[in-house]
Design brief:
single chain; 13 helices; five-stranded antiparallel sheet; 19 strands; globular; alpha+beta; 449 residues
Length: 449
């Protein structure tokens, strides 16, 4: 179920029209009709997936124009209808049609406030910013050349009582730290239940797996600690070797796909440049300067992640990272995924970024969303830092995009491509993300000498 190469197959044109218009009821009827006909299995699989994709659309897009306007007016001083139209057209507020009417994403307002240059200054109730801790840490990394942090957190999932099927078996997968290049001394300190399995420290999407009988008020947690060791890399194009490796330069379907659009975009970005470090920097600059940060629909509702960014010039951290990875691979620069959590003394949350390989430096980092955010604020030092380097406030659980768990999950995951919060499933169906609450708690974050 997680081998989704059928996403390269398009839908019948009448189904496409109905989905684009947001007539989901009719689209589902038509999909069922097509599936009674003599069609290839790959198209049957694609149509089956589209039914689940429609379910996700309904979960994510919930605000009518009028409701969205009221929400914005309750949080932003003197907010107008014309401003909402401007946010919609300016890629700040994500939307689709449902029954032919504009319907906004559930996080449209949070995203608009985060990204828009002035909305934050008009908040009725201003929010705190953690930019200072990043700037101070980056300055210290550059000056000292190395920094280490000890991080101790607790994460998990709590099954909502109304979805607890008491007496039935449930399987739970929680992400835990990998032994990545910047992660050392990982320790699993406590689990709420005896693990069924803990995947190897180098598993590309590492998890602890529980299999338990549901009792009601079920809460599955893991508590762990690790050290984050960051060494500053001062990259110079003059030092780049003539001979570069070719691993991690291939396609990885369905998302890392060398489509005509992405091939042409890569050529236009790098032009006649031959130095791989400068080529990678050109790609980073293009994304950070042109791709608007945007919270988006669930990744399973996007049929090609990097093309979504290239066509729409918007996307969140993972979409920007996947565009960077794919463009790098197209021009022969090894690039791969890295993701998990951001964990600093003030905040914990999900995040994605990329690694790319340049000889003689080895694997180095690129975080287009953090870099783009710095550029929006006029912070060129931070923008430059996130090409080649990374802050220490990360938990890395995933080093591949779209990789199976161990033991393998039976049903299609809530996020088939990445794992930052965890997954649940019963023996007969998946547990959907609105049927559980996410637990993410900071216990200790301290600098090591």
């Amino acid at each position: 179920m997680n081998k989704l190469k059928f996403l390269m197959v398009d839908l019948p044109e009448d189904v496409n029209r109905l989905v684009a218009f947001g007539d989901f009821s009719k689209a589902l009827e038509l999909i069922d009709l097509y599936m009674t006909r003599n069609i290839p299995k790959i198209l049957t699989d694609r149509l089956t997936f589209e039914k689940d994709r429609i379910r996700r659309f309904k979960q994510d897009y919930i605000y009518s124009f009028d409701k969205a306007l009221t929400l914005a007016q309750n949080q932003i001083q003197d907010f107008t209808k014309e401003e909402l139209e401007s946010l919609k057209d300016g890629r700040y507020a994500d939307w689709i049609y449902i029954d032919g009417k504009v319907t906004f994403h559930k996080n449209f307002l949070e995203n608009s406030i985060k990204v828009h240059p002035i909305l934050k200054t008009r908040l009725i109730n201003p929010v705190a910013d953690d930019s200072n801790i990043l700037d101070k840490t980056i300055e210290e990394i550059i000056n000292r050349r190395e920094i280490k942090y000890f991080i101790h957190i607790k994460t998990g999932l709590k099954l909502k009582d109304e979805y607890a099927r008491n007496g039935e078996t449930i399987r739970v997968y929680l992400p835990i730290p990998q032994g990545a290049q910047q992660i050392k001394n990982v320790n699993i300190l406590h689990t709420s239940h005896k693990p069924k399995a803990i995947s190897h420290e180098n598993h590309p999407q590492r998890t602890v797996c529980f299999e338990e009988i549901v009792k009601g008020e079920d809460e599955f947690t893991v508590e762990y600690s690790y050290e984050s060791h960051i060494k500053y890399k001062d990259l110079s194009a003059d030092r780049v070797s003539k001979n570069q490796p070719t691993f991690y330069t291939e396609e990885y379907l369905p998302h890392i796909k060398f489509t005509p659009l992405l091939i042409e975009l890569a050529k236009e970005i790098v032009e006649e440049e031959t130095n791989p470090l400068i080529k990678a920097r050109k790609i980073y600059d293009y994304i950070t300067q042109n791709v608007q940060y945007s919270y988006v629909r669930q990744y399973a509702a996007i049929t090609n992640v990097p093309e979504y960014a290239a066509y729409n010039l918007k996307g969140d951290c993972g979409i920007q990272a996947m565009l960077f990875i794919t463009l790098c691979r197209i021009i022969g620069i090894p690039a791969r995924w890295q993701s998990g959590l951001v964990v600093n003394p003030n905040r914990i949350g999900c995040h994605d970024w990329a690694e790319f390989y340049i000889e003689p430096y080895g694997w180095v980092f690129a975080d287009p969303s953090f870099g783009g955010g710095a550029l929006r604020r006029g912070n060129e030092k931070r923008w430059n830092f996130y090409f080649g380097n990374l802050d220490p406030f990360r938990m890395i659980a995933n080093s591949e995009f779209h990789y199976n768990f161990y033991p393998e999950k039976k049903f299609l995951r809530q996020d088939p491509y990445d794992n930052q919060e965890g997954e649940m499933e019963y023996l007969d169906r998946p547990v959907f993300y609105d049927e559980y609450d996410v637990i993410q708690e900071i216990i200790e974050v301290r600098k090591m000498e």
